[in-house]
Amino acid sequence: MHFLASSSFSSLVHPTQAVEAATATVVVVVAVVVVVVAVVVVVVVVAVVVAVVVVVVVVVVVVVAVVVVVVVVVVVVVAVVVVILLSPSCSGVTSQG
């Protein structure tokens, strides 16, 4: 009876098993930390890429808007100049001069 109790007690607190359990715990903790850090890095990279894409889209929209405004202004100015040059009052003034 004493032998059985001592053998079961020694198997419970065997130093090698304790070291193995501690090592396994450390490995699991390190693995979880590595996975969490990897997920955070991926999320940050995706957020940065999305932000860059949004900035590029906004810049393209602004550039297109500026080009459209410039084209409209040029068309309006050309139309006004053509109307002024082709108006009868203007041609009459030049013919009288």
From TrEMBL:
Q: Which organism is it from?
A: Elysia marginata
Report what the protein is called: ABC transmembrane type-1 domain-containing protein
Residues spanning the membrane: 28-50, 57-86
- Protein origin, superkingdom: Eukaryota
Q: Which UniProt keywords apply?
A: Membrane, Signal, Transmembrane, Transmembrane helix
Which residues belong to the signal peptide in this entry? 1-18
